[in-house]
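User: Run a structure prediction on this.
Assistant: Running it now.
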Amino acid sequence: MTRMSASTTPKVLSTPNQHIASRFSFGVNEYLISDIGSSRSATKWLERQFAWSKLGDTKGDAVINWFPHLRDQPAKAWTNHQNEDHTAYAYGRDLCAYTLAMKVATRRQVREVMADVWSNLFYIPMGEGRSFPWRYSFDAMIRSRSLGSFRSLLRGAVLHPAMSGWLNNSSNTKYGINENLGRELLELFTVGRPAGYDEDDVKNSARILTGFRVKMFDSFAASYDPELHYVGRIRVLGFSHANSSKDGRTAVNAYLDYLARHPATATRIARRLCVRFVSDTPSSSIVSAVAKAYRASDTDIKATLRALVRHPDFQASKRKKVRTPIEDVVNAARVLGLRPTGCSTERSFPLHLLWMAEGVGQSQFGWPRPDGFPETSAIWASPARVLRSWNNHYDLAGNWWRSAEVYLPARKDQLPSAWPRALGQLVEHQARMLLGRGAPSDLQSAVASALNLPLAYEFNSAAEVTEWTWALIRGAVLNLPEGMLR
């Protein structure tokens, strides 16, 4: 690939292509731009990304190898925790660092974005004591089904041992109903409160989920025990099932499919996707169009996203969503050309990304409740957050944390190949590289003032661009409002 930075004025994506790439990736770097170029448009790139299993992803595939404990069997994970060889917190931290590294490194950006969307819907916090031995397995299931059907995803998430532990379904039996998962299935995962379910519906929702077991605080082995399943007719909203067999899994699957296909679920999922990808206050027009595609395709996620992207409200929403702190540090890493290469020390780059985001107010899988992080922009736009993100941009631009296990591209390889270059030209060059657009005049003036140099000041070679000058230019570019919007 010919590096974009070699050009004095790097080419940028068209505004519509930049918009799609920005919303459906964790950062539009030159490799992603190259992928879009080979696809001929961002819409066609999106279709190639939908077929993620056909995309080679050497860098993304390597990330799990840096976290060998994540693939420990549940019994081994529990033993390690008891012996303090690798605690529940350590497993959780590994998962967080792995997730951030994947967001930076993977070529399968759309799959990773959708894994983030669904992980926040079917939310389980890091290091939680009843779920941690199964948590990586849950994450892998979410990722593998993130662009399939919502029906399949709902089954995988609700019936997974990690969710059974986190929301206490492992202790939900015909002898003692635990309503936790049955309630959240209705309230958070599918139809939502406006659907009008009542307390009897919640109890029946819990009853049908009985029989799924996890040997808590022992081997964490998962199983299904027909002797513990509640038998008898179940009615929830418009769903009815005889539920006459001790093995209630057929009834459970019918119930989950019913909820996945429910019109209220279609509207709720459509609205959630529109808030994530379009606007904090999406119009009824786009929500209706996306919900219609969801139902017409029998909950197919790709078809649902196509309807969202085709709607005029999507293109009208350019640069109107604020990146969360996690999205911001990952985006900065990607566009700056930083890439994790391992995670074996406390100074490793994935851990530094984790701590940077945490310092701004968002730790990966650190939300304490089952409803997941807010998806709206306003909550992430406080003055304190902005100031802390500005500091992160400078830290990343200059690698001022002196991170280990990170690929740092040579400065000369991210600058023009033709010299001399004026200061104003370098600011313009980096705005195109990092933001995908030119530098406004006030940014150029601010950089010149900070460096106490005229905009016309000429650098005769890349070697004359000092580390301080380089970090200040790039940090200032990322600190533009456009740098924090997607």
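Residues 297 and 303 are 7 Å apart (CA to CA).
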